[in-house]
Amino acid sequence: VDRYSNNGQTAVKIFGTDDAKDSAKRMIEEVIQDRPSHSKRETQNKRPASPELIVVIPYNSPAPPPPPPSDAESAPAPAEPASTDPCTWDSDNSGAKWIEKRMASLPVLRKNFYEELPEVRDLSDSEVEKIRASKNNIETYRVFESEEEFKVPNPVTTFEQAFHNYPEILKEIKKAGFQNPSPIQCQAWPILLSGKDMIGIAQTGTGKTLAFLLPALIHIDGQTTPRNKRPGPDVMIMAPTRELAQQINEEAAKYSYRGIKSVCLYGGGSRQDQIAQVEKGVQMIIATPGRLNDLQRSGALDVSHVSYVVLDEADRMLDLGFEGQIRRVLIEVRPDRQIVMTSATWPAAIRRLASTYSADPIQVVVGTLDLTAATTVEQHIEIVEEDDKLNLLKAFVQNMQKDEKAIVFIGQRTKVDHVASDLALLYIPVRSIHGKIDQEDREEAVREIRSGEVKILLATDVASRGLDIDDVTHVINYDFPKEMEEYVHRVGRTGRAGKKGQSISWLTRRDWHMAEPLIKIMKDANQEIPKELEDMARRYKNRPKRPPTQGRRNGGGNNGYGGFSDADDFGGGRRKRW
């Protein structure tokens, strides 16, 4: 709502319960009253913004209907027309009536496909607790409801216990060579096959993709409407990066189940080709939020019958600013859909999203809600000079074994290109991946390191969560990340699928403020803490504080906190010239 539309007046449509509508009315009136007037000059000089409709969604309620399409953009027509009559301030239950009318036009949704075997059902509470403790301390919670009308299913310990009714899926799992379900899979499969909403909190590389993907295949095949009569896809999976979306799509392709087709939609790929694939008929879409919004709003994609939604790495999507696009798409999805959210953390923004779109979800936490690095990764820390990094990398590459692969994370795109050029002069084959590299070249780089054609991949953080290469043996933090969360996700690129891995991080004097949180991460993962890192943390903690009146020039660098001097020694051997 803004002053550029209809001379400052905009109709506001409100759907939901009576209490929610009253609250919305009060909030809107508070927003618009006593606004300062703007001069004509200001209005003329300021570029008009596109009017936005404020939609207030009551806590844990079904999503409201979308606003009517504008003249410039036509929304896709639903399979059967549903009323979009506006709700007046005084109308009764119009939101509920709209939901009821829309639901009447949709086919019956099947969500429960789980048959719990007696050997799982009859486990005692102590046996269940023991299994969960042995699987990296799995914990389950009812996120919003205190009364457990639906008991959280017991965890499974074998693939057969989860998929005994689905021999084709069991065959594909065995073909992939997996021995046992991962911790997140043990608990997620019984929940999702039972048709319940779930929030999975686990670090990357823990098998989350298969945790939501295999139930999605069963969900698609189990619906009563024939596939050729469904107006659009049944499953919608959103991912924060094109790399992650592509990898989920590749994983889906491995488990060919009863002819189910998927398509990957992302920016940077051919829009026309993606639309053509959608028009041929697909049951599963895997997409980044931007391209998904583009195709849905243009009418090329109908998501009104989507009944299984996955928000993979939801915390990352919110960090990247996709919340508005996620909400716009979910408004179009049928209200009784099943929704799955995965995340490495549990911030307030994720809780708000879950409270709006999930129906009494079950939260599954693997490990801890605190930020932790995988215990399968051996973490090494070196305190170095900035100018030493390139020579250290050259020495590392020249000593790599034939079966080793490494991802090197570098802070800036330009530095990635410079390092790649320096290594190329030594005839060291490397590939690079960052935001300015064409999508086709990025895909080729990932293919080459997977195939072993190259052993070194240089990357910025654009790839820190998007890469899924099982046999990466080393991660090198050429530049230490600005946030510990990024450190955890970078390190998580190795030590995947039950394998061991190593990370090497080079810290300089600029990174001294990261020493203390890094020590905590390492202690939680039972890693050995270098003495020089402890010295750095102590130095930062005891740094002289800058008086409020002083500027940077009085602080000696490092944000005016005194910094280091050449006399400082952190025990770093030949790299202790501090």
TrEMBL record:
Pfam families: DEAD (PF00270), Helicase_C (PF00271). Residues 71-86 have a biased composition (Low complexity). InterPro entries: DEAD/DEAH_box_helicase_dom, Helicase_ATP-bd, Helicase_C-like, P-loop_NTPase, RNA-helicase_DEAD-box_CS, RNA_helicase_DEAD_Q_motif. Residues 1-93, 538-578 are annotated as: Disordered. It is an enzyme of class 3 (hydrolase). Residues 61-70 have a biased composition (Pro residues). A motif (Q motif) lies at residues 158-186. Its EC number is 3.6.4.13. Residues 16-45 have a biased composition (Basic and acidic residues). One of its GO terms (molecular function) is nucleic acid binding. Residues 553-563 have a biased composition (Gly residues). GO terms for biological process: regulatory ncRNA-mediated gene silencing. Residues 189-364 form the Helicase ATP-binding domain. Residues 158-186 form the DEAD-box RNA helicase Q domain. Keywords: ATP-binding, Helicase, Hydrolase, Nucleotide-binding. Residues 376-537 form the Helicase C-terminal domain. Belongs to the DEAD box helicase family. This is RNA helicase. It comes from Bracon brevicornis.
